[in-house]
Amino acid sequence: MIPREILKKIRQIELRTNRIVTETLAGQYHSVFKGQGMNFDEVREYQPGDDVRAIDWNVTARMNHPFIKKFVEERELTLMLVVDVSGSGLFGSRDQSKRELAAEIASVLAFSAIRNNDKVGLILFSDEVEKFIPPRKGRSHVLRVIREVLFFEPKRRGTDLNHALEFLMRVTPHKAIAAVISDFIGSPAQLQGQNKRRLRPQMMLLESLAQASFTMLKQANRRHDVVAVQITDPCELELPALGRLVLQDAETGEIVEVSTGDARKRAAFAARQTKAQADTAKLFRTAGIDSIQLRTDRAYGVTLAKFFATRERRRLRG
């Protein structure tokens, strides 16, 4: 029996995200994510102007008259939501945590998918794959996906995107849309060559998990259509002037005292974070991956719509 407060939270997200899907993203998902090939539909008689390469010679021989094969675009897709449930996702300096925003974005994409009659699957990961829900269709299935993203309690707190991507490629043999929803903040063990002390606490420097997983991201994107959805909190980008703070890292448990009273230090921190964000976006571009950056303190509907519109224009040019 699912507790009433959980059902209420899921219902609120469903109503909110369905409105965004209907009013802001109507039709964009359908036009941006195309089918992965052409399916045979039927044969019909050859007509002047038809491509002779489409002639079905077996049917033509039997009927003693030319016939061609007719194909239709494959429209059914699979959307795999690859969602980070590591400890850093619990952070939120506003009304919403990064994990809660991740659930809303997953909901928007999932409801867009089922309106297109596509399947939706889910992979939850920390520094291991925590849960896998195979792709299915239907509203009740999507509501289960939302519930898991919101309320699943992971066994571990670290982050390893490589394991999640390896698992994705193992369980999804055919090409799919893979939306990786994460803050892309890595555990120290995954950030090779970095000074571990510089990484703690997570708020002190936004390090790129994407860099540690660059090769695997490229491999995954060769097989699937990978979209990176990066979720950040404003206090991970700019430190508030609150004097001395005692901070605990959500993934390692390390406690660090930080002085936020010095304006020059806050400015230096913000500059490093801006560069880290730019470097992460560049890595995605180099890997050929579309990415979108969302924040817990800003509405995401318009940003998502712009992302879809940009992707559609590029597809049409190509």
Structural write-up:
The structure is a single chain. With about 325 residues, this protein is of the alpha/beta class. The protein folds into two domains: about 5-30 and about 75-315, 3-Layer(aba) Sandwich (Rossmann fold); about 40-75, no CATH class. The protein has helices spanning about 5-25, 30, 55-65, 100-115, 140-150, 160-170, 210, 215-225, 235, 265-285, 300-315, and strands spanning about 40-45, 65-75, 80-85, 120-125, 130-135, 175-180, 225-230, 245-250, 255-260, 290-295. The strands form three sheets. A six-stranded mixed β-sheet has the order 5-4-3-6-7-10, with helices on both faces. A two-stranded antiparallel sheet has the order 1-2. It has a two-stranded antiparallel sheet with strand order 8-9. Strand 3 (about 80-85), helix 4 (about 100-115) and strand 4 (about 120-125) form a beta-alpha-beta unit.
Task: Provide a compact summary of the structure.
The chain has 318 residues and is α/β, with parallel strands linked by helices. It has helices spanning 4-23, 28-32, 57-63, 98-115, 139-151, 161-171, 209-212, 214-223, 234-237, 263-286, 301-317, and strands at residues 38-45, 67-73, 78-84, 119-125, 129-136, 177-182, 225-232, 244-248, 255-259, 290-295.
